[in-house]
Amino acid sequence: MFQFNWKRLGIVAGLSLSLVAAGCGQDDTDNTSNNAENGGDNQTEASTNVGEEIDYTITGIEPGAGITQATDDTLSEYENLAGWEQEISSTAAMLTELENAINNEEPIIVAGWSPHYKFAKFDLKYLEDPKGVYGDVEYIGTIVRKDLKEEMPEAYTILDRFQWEADDMESVMLDAQNMDFEEAAQQWVDENQETVAKWTEGVDPVDGTSIELVLTPWDTERSSANVAKIVLEQQGFNVTLTPVDPAVMFKAIATGDGDASLAPWLPATHGAFFEEFEGEFDDLGENLIGAKIGLVVPTYMDINSIEDLEPAK
């Protein structure tokens, strides 16, 4: 299985782009605060102050994430971002900096995505992206290896039916801040038996058949993978979850080293990988609609668009 081919597949790990995400439930309409308390500064003045106060820096995540590449592209595409930089670190570091800034009501701009629990925990908004560098609203899809339908029809049926809402995924991610992901997923399954029953209706149980779900190592994908794992295990499957870089994920499913993945963000974020291996796996379509990536700020910041930012001085 896939674990034993790590050296062969892992060589591309450091070269890939992904999200994930990659993972909402937050309306991205404008919800700006009044800036009268700042002496009636106009938008340009507020924007200039934002850049100066945050040292013309976007707080990013891991270097292998698709949103990281998209943010680099944004810095190149928008002339008004001349001199700005992206601080690449980790998802955990970005969230820590975001929370610290919000606690002190300080300005911050982060590379963000939804679904994600941060939108349930904080009042946030996306900056408008007039040039469309981050793409439109996306969906998270399901792909499976060729022959899975013939060899594991029960698993294929469940995975094909697996669909849920952004709010569902976000609730699992939020609960997982206080418990492990499997426990949070089990809680969601217990509270959503009607939905689970639709996925498993008429599916015969199996006796210990092994199946490997390949995912990217972000909370969005941990949520869907753990929910699918519990549902499949209730049907008698022996499920292994393997988190990898997205390029490795697509290649694993295309070569049959992994059985299925609920993690692709499409059509833009993981579109290049999808096109590279298209036809070498079965595409089961979306399992969640309404995914999004972009630059995110707290709603108290008096800025609405990427174009409102000023070049570095």
Automatic annotation (TrEMBL):
<dbReference type="GO" id="GO:0022857">
    <property type="term" value="F:transmembrane transporter activity"/>
</dbReference>
<feature type="domain" description="ABC-type glycine betaine transport system substrate-binding">
    <location>
        <begin position="50"/>
        <end position="191"/>
    </location>
</feature>
<dbReference type="GO" id="GO:0043190">
    <property type="term" value="C:ATP-binding cassette (ABC) transporter complex"/>
</dbReference>
<feature type="domain" description="ABC-type glycine betaine transport system substrate-binding">
    <location>
        <begin position="210"/>
        <end position="310"/>
    </location>
</feature>
<keyword id="KW-0732">Signal</keyword>
<dbReference type="InterPro" id="IPR007210">
    <property type="entry name" value="ABC_Gly_betaine_transp_sub-bd"/>
</dbReference>
<feature type="signal peptide">
    <location>
        <begin position="1"/>
        <end position="21"/>
    </location>
</feature>
<dbReference type="Pfam" id="PF04069">
    <property type="entry name" value="OpuAC"/>
</dbReference>
<protein>
    <submittedName>
        <fullName>Glycine/betaine ABC transporter</fullName>
    </submittedName>
</protein>
